[in-house]
């Protein structure tokens, strides 16, 4: 699947080998990870470039493995994406994320939540009903939730994906293109999708201060997104100089280690409260 070709996120472990004994063990244990409550969502703040307010968070899954310790998604998501296990993980993330976001809003913490979907989710005709069920059970306002999809995950079966995306959008959920620029897609699909946001992959953002062509790509992407009526988020902002340049270019939102790392839920709430 082309989706993993450029994850750009192999900061922790780039040596992924599906046939290693460790990976095979993990695969067999995934079934129990959810039941045993070993999965945990971390939340990374999304900041308004204009005034530094926290507008949202992205849910990023972690696995507290009893033997291997804290595992990052690059160590188990690609594996799960090869089977339908990923659909179970996605439903867990949605259930947990919706509940958490509803709780924040009840406590007057008004942050939106972004959740990552995989290619297999966009080929699952049951996804809209599953999401609708959780929405009703949790009582969440779908306007607070953005679902992140990648260009490659749409392109595996564009017609099926398009239909599923529109059904979920009709319920009031928002959509975002993640890792923009790393996958294959066409502008005609971009135009036909009910998008709210485009996220520039951090492989383009990281070097904009030093690399002229990266700076040009980021500038062009911001203009393209704005011309299509979309918000732009820059990923992987690691220093304040980069943030300043993004502000100059008119970028709307930013995510990155210099603004806020992914944090466990309690820490994220405290972090938000300390900022105001
Ligand atoms: P992503 O969706 O592109 O998420 C952003 C990744 O960049 C996260 O890695 C985040 O920790 C990292 N990051 C954020 N700011 C910076 C920065 O300033 N510098 C650098 N170098 N990295 C930064 P993480 O949490 O390891 O997640 C990796 C990937 O795993 C995600 O990439 C996403 O594709 C996938 N993933 C994570 N959680 C889920 C999930 O619940 N479901 C699915 N399907 N995929 C997930
Ligand atoms: Ca990425
Ligand atoms: Ca994402
Ligand atoms: Ca991304």
UniProtKB/TrEMBL annotation:
Signal peptide: none annotated. Residues 23-276 form the EAL domain. It comes from the Bacteria. Keywords: Membrane, Transmembrane, Transmembrane helix. The keyword Membrane applies. One of its GO terms (molecular function) is cyclic-guanylate-specific phosphodiesterase activity. This is Diguanylate cyclase (GGDEF) domain-containing protein. It comes from Amphritea atlantica. The lineage of its organism: Bacteria, Pseudomonadati, Pseudomonadota, Gammaproteobacteria, Oceanospirillales. The chain holds residues 267 to 542 of 542 of the full protein.
């Amino acid at each position: 699947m082309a989706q993993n070709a450029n994850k750009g996120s192999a900061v922790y472990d780039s040596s992924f080998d599906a046939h290693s004994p460790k990976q095979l063990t993990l695969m067999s244990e995934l079934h129990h990870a959810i039941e045993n409550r070993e999965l945990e969502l971390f939340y990374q703040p999304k900041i308004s470039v204009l005034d530094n307010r926290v507008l949202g968070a992205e849910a990023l899954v972690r696995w507290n493995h009893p033997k291997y310790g804290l595992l990052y998604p690059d160590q188990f998501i690609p594996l799960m994406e090869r089977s339908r296990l990923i659909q179970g993980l996605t439903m867990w993330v949605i259930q947990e994320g919706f509940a958490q976001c509803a709780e924040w809003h009840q406590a007057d913490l008004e942050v939106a939540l972004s959740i990552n979907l995989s290619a297999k989710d966009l080929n699952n005709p049951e996804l809209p009903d599953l999401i609708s069920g959780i929405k009703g059970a949790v009582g969440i306002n779908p306007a607070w939730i953005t679902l992140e999809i990648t260009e490659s995950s749409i392109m595996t079966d564009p017609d099926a994906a398009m239909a599923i995306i529109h059904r979920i959008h009709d319920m009031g959920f928002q959509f975002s293109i993640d890792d923009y620029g790393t996958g294959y897609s066409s502008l005609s699909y971009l135009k036909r999708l009910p998008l709210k946001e485009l996220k520039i992959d951090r492989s383009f953002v990281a070097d904009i201060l030093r690399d002229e062509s990266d700076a040009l790509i980021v500038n062009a992407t911001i203009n393209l997104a704005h011309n299509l009526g979309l918000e732009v988020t820059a990923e992987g902002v690691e220093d304040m100089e980069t943030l300043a340049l993004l502000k100059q270019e008119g970028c709307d939102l930013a995510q990155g280690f210099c603004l806020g790392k992914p944090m466990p839920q309690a820490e994220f709430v405290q972090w938000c409260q300390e900022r105001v």
